[in-house]
């Protein structure tokens, strides 16, 4: 199995802007807002009623002129509150695992967002003020989004891998680069759903399907009004995907569908779904970047570290392990017994074949400086302290490698989406959440 390149580290800043405008009330808002009603208690944190109201107003502003596409006020509040709860849980988990974002990094993200919108950071700030949004709250929300992206990146690095066999199989069936734009409606079911809950969910999804079949509502409006998915307020839009990025349960059916057609309801791990093929297009094949490039095969030992005392302890441990290897201990066995990279530990730290920059410039510089068979001195990256042993190198055709990298990326993104959504459901289910607004407030406590 090969670790994915750090695909999650490249920030997609346009979606960040949309997320921050929607979720401008953030985890730090209670420090600047006067005490008001509590909409929800999330573990040891709270979401204020004023935060929920502002987030709902942002949605209403976005749908100005299209109010008929929005669900009733109580349903809209529930959807928005769930988003706020998930943001709280993710940022809390990020902080607990040592994720942080500096002011300089927030400044850089704002500069990129402004550039993508053909403006300067100052013009962006002025536009936010004109739109009635607090610039400090926008910065705090952007910081939260960056933290969540880093948490997701760590998740991907530790849990998501794609084998060469999976890439080979995908390439063998790739035939063309057809892409599919999809949308879905989800009626969620809780973990361990009872027979009654399953029957209620099935009845709801069949009712939504009936509305669509009778032409009483288009798919996008139905998603906004009825879907339990996080992207409900975007009309259930799942974006453009290749066939490799579509779950196997849907992929076979999608190939034979025409734009506008709907399949389902299908039962999945999250609940019942309806899926619509919105449109198709022919994507571009990866043909650029030809020529020969050098790839490396290596294994490594990772000791994770944070700043302060833990960093010193990690450095002492990696120094000890390096001394053992220098004294004749087998690198593979030392890695299996001690490495904290859970993805490669059982394989003796084997990273497979990779390009020099796949794991970041610091790691790549260490590998390229070694001879085959040589072991590095301990060195530090954002992940922690490493010792790396270079096994070999080879020359490969970059055009073919680019195609393989793109396929590996798409498979990895599909796996990440499935696993990340499962992780979020587990985190939501385990959390203490006491919802204190809405008709079902008294019955909304979950987790423990």
Automatic annotation (TrEMBL):
Main subcellular location: periplasm
Organism: Luteimonas vadosa
Protein keywords: Chaperone, Isomerase, Periplasm, Repeat, Rotamase, Signal
Entry superkingdom: Bacteria
GO MF annotation terms: isomerase activity
Residues annotated as domain PpiC: 184-277, 300-390
InterPro entries in alphabetical order: OMP_Chaperone_SurA, PPIase_dom_sf, PPIase_PpiC, PPIase_SurA, SurA_N, Trigger_fact/SurA_dom_sf
UniProt name for this protein: Chaperone SurA
Enzyme class: isomerase
Pfam families linked to this entry: Rotamase, SurA_N
Role played: Chaperone involved in the correct folding and assembly of outer membrane proteins. Recognizes specific patterns of aromatic residues and the orientation of their side chains, which are found more frequently in integral outer membrane proteins. May act in both early periplasmic and late outer membrane-associated steps of protein maturation.
Reaction catalyzed: [protein]-peptidylproline (omega=180) = [protein]-peptidylproline (omega=0)
Location in or out of the cell: Periplasm
Domain SurA N-terminal: 35-152
Listed PANTHER family: CHAPERONE SURA (PTHR47637)
């Amino acid at each position: 199995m090969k670790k994915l390149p750090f695909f999650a580290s490249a920030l997609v800043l346009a979606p960040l802007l949309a997320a921050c405008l929607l979720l401008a009330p953030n985890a730090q808002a209670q420090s600047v807002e006067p005490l008001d009603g509590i909409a929800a208690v999330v573990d040891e944190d709270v979401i204020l009623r004023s935060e929920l109201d502002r987030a709902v107003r942002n949605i209403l502003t976005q749908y100005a002129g299209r109010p008929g596409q929005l669900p009733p006020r109580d349903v809209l509040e529930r959807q928005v509150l769930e988003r706020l709860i998930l943001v709280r849980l993710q940022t809390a988990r990020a902080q607990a695992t040592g994720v942080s974002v500096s002011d300089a990094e927030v400044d850089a993200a704002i500069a990129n967002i402004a550039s993508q919108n053909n403006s300067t950071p100052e013009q962006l700030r002025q536009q936010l003020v004109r739109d009635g949004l607090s610039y400090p709250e926008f910065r705090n929300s952007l910081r939260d989004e960056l933290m969540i992206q880093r948490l997701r990146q760590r998740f991907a690095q530790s849990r998501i891998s794609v084998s060469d066999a999976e890439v080979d199989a995908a390439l063998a069936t790739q035939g063309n680069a057809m892409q599919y734009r999809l949308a879905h409606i989800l009626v969620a079911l809780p973990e361990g759903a009872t027979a009654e809950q399953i029957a209620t969910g099935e009845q709801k999804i069949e009712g939504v399907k009936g509305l669509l079949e009778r032409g009483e509502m288009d798919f996008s409006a139905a998603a906004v009004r009825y879907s339990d998915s996080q992207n409900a307020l975007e009309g259930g839009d799942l974006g453009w995907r290749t066939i490799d990025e579509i779950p196997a349960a849907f992929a076979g059916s999608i190939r034979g569908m025409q734009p506008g057609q709907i399949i389902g309801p299908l039962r999945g791990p999250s609940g019942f779904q309806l899926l619509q093929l919105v449109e198709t297009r022919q994507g571009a094949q990866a043909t650029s970047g030809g020529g020969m490039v050098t790839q490396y095969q290596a294994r490594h030992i990772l000791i994770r570290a944070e700043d302060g005392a833990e960093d010193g302890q990690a450095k002492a441990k990696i120094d000890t392990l390096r001394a053992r290897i220098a004294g004749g201990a087998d690198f593979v066995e030392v890695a299996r017994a001690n490495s904290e990279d859970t993805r490669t530990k059982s394989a003796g730290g084997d990273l497979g074949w990779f390009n020099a920059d796949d794991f970041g410039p610091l790691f790549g510089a260490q590998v390229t400086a070694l001879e085959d068979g040589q072991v590095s001195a301990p060195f530090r990256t954002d992940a922690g302290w490493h010792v790396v042993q270079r096994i070999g190198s080879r020359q490969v055709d970059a055009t073919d490698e680019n195609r393989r990298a793109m396929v590996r990326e798409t498979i990895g993104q599909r796996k990440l989406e499935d696993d990340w959504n499962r992780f979020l459901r587990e985190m939501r289910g385990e959390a203490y959440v006491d919802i204190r607004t809405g008709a079902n407030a008294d019955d909304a406590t979950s987790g423990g």
